Amino acid sequence: MAANMKVKERVAKKQTLCGALMLIEALKAENVKVIFGYPGGAVLPIYDKLYESGVFHVLTRHEQGAIHAAEGYARISGKPGVVIATSGPGATNIVTGLTDAMMDSIPLVVFTGQVASNVIGSDAFQEADVLGITMPITKHSYQVRDIHELPKIIKEAFHIATTGRPGPVLIDIPKDMAVAEAEFDYEQDIQLPGYQPTTKPNHLQIRKLVEAVSQAKRPVILAGAGVLHANAHEQLKQYAEQQNIPVIHTLLGLGGFPADHPLFLGMAGMHGTYTANMALYECDLLINVGARFDDRVTGNLAHFAPKATVAHIDIDPAEIGKNVPTKIPIVGDAKEALIQLIEQNGKRPDVSEWLNKLNEWKREYPLMYKREPGVLKPQRLIEMIHEYTNGEAVVTTDVGQHQMWVAQYYKFKQPHRWVTSGGLGTMGFGLPAAIGAQLAQPEATVVAIVGDGGFQMTLQELSVIQELNLPIKIVIVNNQALGMVRQWQEIFYEKRYSHSLIPNQPDFVRLAEAYGMKAMRATTEEEAEYVLKEAFATNAPVLLDFHVHPGENVYPMVAPGKGLHEMVGVKW
Amino acid sequence: MVKRIITMTVNNRPGVLNRITGLFTKRHYNIESITVGHTETEGVSRMTFVVNVDDERIAEQITKQLNKQIDVLKVVDITDQAIIVRELALIKVAVTSATRGEIYTLIEPFRAAIVDVARDSLVVQVTGEPEKIDALIDLLKPYGLKEVARTGTTAFPRGSQRASSTNKSLFII
């Protein structure tokens, strides 16, 4: 603490600091509560100053774990996740997480060590061209070449990561820069003439949309994660109710609109609901709020929303018109756009016939699966978790079948409860993301729902969960297979299960116990009831290994290359 | 395929060219030529790209994606404006005492210059729109081209934007 005070005095006098202390002071100025990282040679000077800094640093057991934890933290807290990794292998280990954050617009500020300036380019020990490697997978990146620039760089990095369309920003710090000294001035203004995101929507375009809505017979809103990034969930509900327009979510948008709301049609896309997909096919006005028309949402673009006038609200102008021709482009913040739309209070369209049709589809084609005695169906498992957590838990997942079942059956009622790897589809994301999510909301119930495949990609982070005693409930949806790969092989590759079946999985219960963690297994619905009850009554980490029906597939489904209206598996 | 000319000003920071060309690779855009150089403002460079695209939608995407780069200050697709388009080429042609004089006459209407003379070759320097350079190279080809170096296209809008349609048609590279 004494050392800490000393640092503060020095900063107050704007004294000279070394690069490592600048970094720490900048993190404090940015109100960073937790950082995730892993030490190594090139960041030793930084870690030395961290030692007595009072900054809460979580040592993950792999750099990939650190960056996914930071992503989980950012998703739940709404604040940027901060990561430190060393040069070379430390930095290359965060490449997946950077790409994941880039795809899903997650704000991160990532510090990587680098070999000393005078040996950069000489293939030095643990040298990698991190700037070159990460350029296409970061929103922006810096390499510190002059210590005087470091405060400005960090300040810009936080600004860029968190404004406009959020994303990861990387700062590569050569080892000598961490010890070089200069004056620390963090009060300077940010000057980025090449970066001026448009947040205020164009009034004319808003009026055009209001007019289009008033004329519409079959309008629908497709809401993506942009609604959550903008904290616009209240406005979304208000606008949908004011205009009586049904709402569809993308995978990442889930929770932005309450799943139990009568105007909610479910998730769209490859494993979306029949109603949502058919609504997109039949609508005459499609209002996209903060979604990027990903191919998993649109299916074959030639058949996407063929009858619709498309309006698109997005903070990123490059997303508008990228995949789907757009008649009414609205560049801006989702919240500001929705507020303007609500204020316009335009003429409510006559949608009674449309809503009748949609409700008929909802009744006729609900999500479905068959329960069988003595067998634990994964869909039922997710429903049970939903019941036990009252639909209010923070849920993280990997990618694949279990992810789709959560998206379908965990009916998110609230925003900022859902942490999943959407765009990149990263196996091994869920477990470390849960660490960040729990640290962001210590009081929340956090459930990491993972597959038996993905779990083994980052399971070393069990160690962190146990060490910090984070009361995360780890649910392994264990089908002894890489389920989604197996499903595609069954459907599209004549059941040739090439390297997707893993009948000899380790004993996950004993594995968790080796980490000192409580663990239980269930193979039937009855056992599942029992272990879930027990787990949610425990204020400590618990790992649950659920042996679900191994041949279960995710339906309904839009086959690749097909239009949303060509979905299969909608009815027995 | 249509060709578009995109000019932009960028912060002259380390790696900025890498960022831009990397973006073209990532998004699968084809670059026909790039020129880069300083501008009247210190620390700001101008880049001129000639790109091949399938349609206008892709051209629009390119400018939007370039605009997202933090170090990019301004991007303009100037293809449809009244513009000045220039390229410089150095052409080393084989000569004999018999053909030397002929080549001098031949390049004159192109307002090209001989910038180097050797016993068996000449270096011709020519500036102009890329099609003019193509034409001169075609004419010199029969004499034997030893080496050709072209700078790629650089361009910017004219001071006055009148009669843009005729200017546009001139530029079909």
TrEMBL record, chain A:
Pathway: Amino-acid biosynthesis; L-valine biosynthesis; L-valine from pyruvate: step 1/4; Amino-acid biosynthesis; L-isoleucine biosynthesis; L-isoleucine from 2-oxobutanoate: step 1/4
Entry's EC annotation: 2.2.1.6
Domain Thiamine pyrophosphate enzyme TPP-binding: 398-546
UniProt keyword annotation of Ligase present: no
Record text on cofactor binding: Binds 1 thiamine pyrophosphate per subunit. Binds 1 Mg(2+) ion per subunit.
Catalytic activity, as annotated: 2 pyruvate + H(+) = (2S)-2-acetolactate + CO2
Similarity comment text for this entry: Belongs to the TPP enzyme family.
Protein name as catalogued: Acetolactate synthase
Protein source organism: Anoxybacillus thermarum
TrEMBL record, chain B:
Cellular component terms (Gene Ontology): cytosol
Domain (ACT): residue spans on this chain: 5-80
Keyword Amino-acid biosynthesis tagged: yes
Root EC class: transferase
A biological-process GO annotation: isoleucine biosynthetic process
CDD domains cross-referenced by the UniProt entry: ACT_AHAS (cd04878)
EC number(s) on file: 2.2.1.6
Reactions accelerated catalytically: 2 pyruvate + H(+) = (2S)-2-acetolactate + CO2
Entry keywords, A to Z: Amino-acid biosynthesis, Branched-chain amino acid biosynthesis, Transferase
This protein's record includes keyword Disulfide bond: no
InterPro entries: Acetalactate_synth_ssu, Acetolactate_synth/TF_NikR_C, Acetolactate_synth_ssu_C, ACT-like_dom_sf, ACT_dom, AHAS_ACT, AHAS_small-like_ACT
Gene3D superfamilies (alphabetical): 3.30.70.260, ACT-like. Chain A, domain 2
Family: Belongs to the acetolactate synthase small subunit family.
Role played: Catalyzes the conversion of 2 pyruvate molecules into acetolactate in the first common step of the biosynthetic pathway of the branched-amino acids such as leucine, isoleucine, and valine.
NCBIfam families: acolac_sm, PRK11895.1
PANTHER family documented for this protein: ACETOLACTATE SYNTHASE SMALL SUBUNIT, ACETOLACTATE SYNTHASE SMALL SUBUNIT 1, CHLOROPLASTIC
SUBUNIT field: Dimer of large and small chains.
Protein's name in the database: Acetolactate synthase small subunit
Source organism per UniProt: Anoxybacillus thermarum
UniProt lineage: Bacteria, Bacillati, Bacillota, Bacilli, Bacillales
